[in-house]
Write a structure and sequence with these properties.
5 helices
Length: 141
């Protein structure tokens, strides 16, 4: 590499050492590391939030399911277990197909229920209505 640019190896090493030992170099490294740590911290916070949402969602679903499901009579339990196994296998297959698509079901649902600009109420001039700038301006219904 040194011969390709017409520089000697010793001049490249001297420049690298000078850059490494320079006080500005340390500040630059520290700033880069701090920036990476900040990004990792934000990512970790988001993962923690998402995990808490997932745990609470699952707990709520389990509570709901246990509340509304009726006990299976003894005579029907074997058939219910077989049907449960078949449904679970179908669920795992559907989950596998969904994961292969590379999309998030949550994102799909949010996109489905979130209105776009064309779905907002408009004023007579066909201009989208603006939300109040302050919550205190909201008129209770």
């Amino acid at each position: 590499m040194a011969t390709m640019k017409g520089l000697s190896k010793s001049s490249i090493i001297a420049a690298a050492l000078a850059s490494f030992l320079s006080p500005d170099s340390g500040d630059q490294r520290e700033a880069a590391i701090a920036k990476r740590l900040d990004r990792l911290s934000r990512q970790l916070d988001k993962l923690e939030r998402d995990q808490n949402i997932l745990i609470e969602t699952l707990a709520l679903y389990v509570r709901y399911f246990l509340t509304v499901s009726t006990p299976v009579p003894e005579a029907h339990q074997e058939a219910a277990r077989a049907q449960g196994r078949a449904r679970f296998e179908q669920f795992v297959e559907q989950l596998g197909r969904h994961l292969l698509r590379g999309r998030s079901l949550v994102k799909d649902v949010v996109e489905e229920i979130q209105p776009d600009q064309s779905q907002f109420f408009t004023q007579p001039e066909n201009v989208p209505a603006e939300a109040p700038a302050d919550e205190s301006e909201v008129v209770p219904s």
